Automatic annotation (TrEMBL):
It comes from Eucalyptus globulus (Tasmanian blue gum). This is UMP-CMP kinase. It catalyses: dCMP + ATP = dCDP + ADP; CMP + ATP = CDP + ADP; UMP + ATP = UDP + ADP. Pfam families: ADK. ATP binds at residues 62-67, 175, 218. Belongs to the adenylate kinase family. UMP-CMP kinase subfamily. Catalyzes the phosphorylation of pyrimidine nucleoside monophosphates at the expense of ATP. Plays an important role in de novo pyrimidine nucleotide biosynthesis. Has preference for UMP and CMP as phosphate acceptors. HAMAP family: Adenylate_kinase_Adk, Adenylate_kinase_UMP_CMP_kin. Consists of three domains, a large central CORE domain and two small peripheral domains, NMPbind and LID, which undergo movements during catalysis. The LID domain closes over the site of phosphoryl transfer upon ATP binding. Assembling and dissambling the active center during each catalytic cycle provides an effective means to prevent ATP hydrolysis. PANTHER family: NUCLEOTIDE KINASE. Its cofactor is Mg(2+).
């Protein structure tokens, strides 16, 4: 189990980095205050006393989370843990929870938080790199509080890819990866669940000054140029 950060009061961003980001409009005015993001020491990967930097990556289905995470990994060396992908691997491994998870995913519902957080925990513990992108999580307040309770940590920063529904539907229907939930009926259910549950999470991190809202319309490269300064500022400050 990880210890909580002893202190979350000092910013990992220098004031010049903050100014640069603000000037480039990488985040909304509501989310403009920078947060504290001091790394904390873990236990597990923890016994190695490593610093952890946790980024939650939020956005609706098809908003481009996975696509942008791949670019962040490539450019900044983070470890990508997609909650949805961990759940799909659990289905594929025929585990005890596999059938329940498959039923919930087909219905566009959120899997009980304890199941998802335990998978994320396993992913974090099996990794030498302490810089994590946790994609598609937390989907709701229950997810958020379960992570805090089980992992004993908070994210340093939170990215939110803001994308209109019609664009998300178009992208998901064109994705063609054979996912059981990439059909119009399930997409509509996922969008409903997203609309009903994401706002409290976004609002929570916005109030804590941890939220970076990214306009998710444009080419993949254009969007990455909005994401890049957030991570470049982190790197500069480490
Ligand atoms: N900026 C973009 N413009 C057009 N298509 C995009 C863009 N970004 C990603 N895509 C495509 O849209 C589809 C959905 O993207 P991606 O899988 O990254 O979304 P996601 O947010 O991870 O979705 P989910 O929550 O369903 O996993 C993919 O086929 C991807 O190639
Ligand atoms: N925190 C999460 C993340 C994902 N799921 C389930 C429900 C989603 O529709 C599905 C696919 O996730 P995606 O790959 O789109 O991020 O996985 C969940 O229950 N809880
Ligand atoms: Mg994805």
């Amino acid at each position: 189990m990880w210890r909580r950060a002893a202190s979350l009061s000092s910013s990992i961003f220098s004031s010049s980095s903050r100014r640069a980001l603000r000037d480039r409009g990488a985040y909304s005015s509501k989310a403009m205050e920078f947060s504290s993001a001091e790394p904390f020491k873990g236990e597990g990967c923890l016994s190695k006393e490593k610093n952890l930097y946790i980024t939650f990556v939020l956005g609706g289905p098809g908003s481009g989370k996975g696509t942008q995470c791949a670019k962040i990994v490539e450019n900044f060396g983070y470890t990508h843990l997609s909650a949805g992908e961990l759940l799909r691997q659990e289905i594929a491994s025929n585990s005890e929870d596999g059938v329940m998870i498959l039923d919930m995913i087909k219905e566009g519902k959120i899997v009980p938080s304890e199941v998802t957080v335990k998978l994320i925990q396993k992913g974090m513990e099996s990794c030498d790199n302490g810089k994590f992108l946790i994609d598609g999580f937390p989907r709701n307040e229950e997810n958020r509080t379960a992570f805090e309770q089980i992992i004993g940590a908070e994210p340093n920063i939170v990215l939110f890819f803001d994308c209109p529904e019609e664009e998300m539907i178009k992208r998901v229907l064109n994705r063609n990866e054979g996912r059981v939930d990439d059909n119009i009926d399930t997409i509509r259910k996922r969008l409903k669940v997203f609309a009903a549950s994401h706002y409290p999470v976004i609002d929570y991190y916005s109030k804590k000054g941890k939220l970076y809202k990214i306009d998710a319309i444009g080419t993949e490269d254009e969007i990455f140029e909005r994401v890049r300064p957030v991570f470049a500022a982190c790197e500069g400050a480490q």
